[in-house]
Amino acid sequence: MKQFIVLLFFCVCSIASADDADTAFARKDYTLARDLYVQNRDRFYEHKQDEQWKQASVQIVRCSTALGETDRSVQEYLLLCRKDPLPPLEYLPLPWFVPLDKTLTRQPYHKQAEDFLNDVRNPCPAGKLLAAAVLSVCSDNQKRLRGSQILRDIAAGSQDTAEQKQVVLLATAFLWKQKLPMYRSAADLKPLQNVLAQIPEPLCAGPYFVLGEVAAQVNLPEDAVLYWMRLPILFPENKELKTEGLRRSAETLEKLGRRSQAEHLQNEM
Predict the structure, then answer these.
(1) Which of 159, 175, 191 is the last residue of a domain?
(2) Relative to the CA of 62, which of 34, 87, 185, 264 has its CA 20 to 30 Å away?
(3) Which of 162, 166, 156 minimizes the C-alpha distance to 196?
(4) Quick check: 204 and 228 in contact, CB under 8 A?
(5) Domain that holds residue 105
């Protein structure tokens, strides 16, 4: 009887705490929501509730992304990948844009990415993609080369399942960043747009951002703005990409002589 009461008490507390976390998330209080999800996850781990642990981990990733903390998102997503071989790809925090003052060059994240890639027991394609992407943008030349090579291997990999195809497409799109100086004309945009057409909309935040960069590179500023402006509209939870999309759109519109539109976007930021 005593054990039953303890179990019942735990279930009631867990439900209440989960509701509190979801309520905080719904009102966009992401700091509080993340703290509550972390508390929930600790309890789920203690009581071996694996599915609830995974759900809480996903929400922690979402909160960290909404707060613009890409490094924390990476850390949490790789942790999730160790328990879930098929985590939701729409929350995969690839470093599409890394501000100079918030680089993913801190040693702990390189170490975590390297450990993930070195562990042959990890069957998670999304985790491998994320770890390789993290290394590919680091300051260490050897690590960067290794990450880039793994990304190329993933982009050329099997597409037997829907998830494998999506991972291949995301790796392909991420590699566009490295090829940015090679794009010279509007014709270079077409093959990239063909790839984009195959990527499900919930996974398109990063590809939209990079396509905006490519469009700007080949002197198609209006196209660049159209890509960048999709970020705050379609992906408001992604703070870094949303903010950078608004900033670049405002700068581009200013250069095009559309000052009132640029000022409006600046106010949005």
Answers:
(1) 175
(2) 264
(3) 166
(4) no
(5) 90-175
CA distance 143 to 114: 9
Confidence band, pLDDT 50/70/90 cuts, at residue 11:
very low
Are 163 and 241 part of one and the same domain?
no
Residue 73 lies in a domain: no
Q: Count each helix (H run) and each strand (E run) in the chain, helices first.
A: 13, 0
Are 150 and 195 found together in one domain? Answer: no
Structure tokens at 143: 């690590």
Residue 3 lies in a domain: no
pLDDT digits (tens, 9 = 90+) for 174-217: 999 999 989 999 999 999 999 999 999 999 999 999 999 999 99
CA dist 231 and 225 (Å) reads 10
Task: Dig out the tokens for 71 from the structure.
Answer: 């490094």
Closest CA to 62 of 27, 95, 33: 33
Query: What Cα–Cα distance (Å) separates residue 111 from each residue in 87, 138, 223?
Result: 21, 11, 38
User: Residue 103 region, left (φ>0) first, then alpha (ψ -120 to 50), else beta?
Assistant: beta
Q: Are residues 103 and 168 in the same domain?
A: yes
Q: Which residues contact 18 (CB under 8 A, 6 or more apart)?
A: 40, 52
CA torsion, points 172, 156, 77, 49, in degrees to nearest 10?
140
Rounded to the nearest angstrom, the gap between the alpha carbon of residue 191 and the centroid of all alpha carbons in its chain is 23
d(CA 78, CA 74) in angstroms, rounded, equals: 6
Q: Is 264 contained in some domain?
A: yes
What's the rounded Cα separation, in Å, for the pair 240 and 77? 17
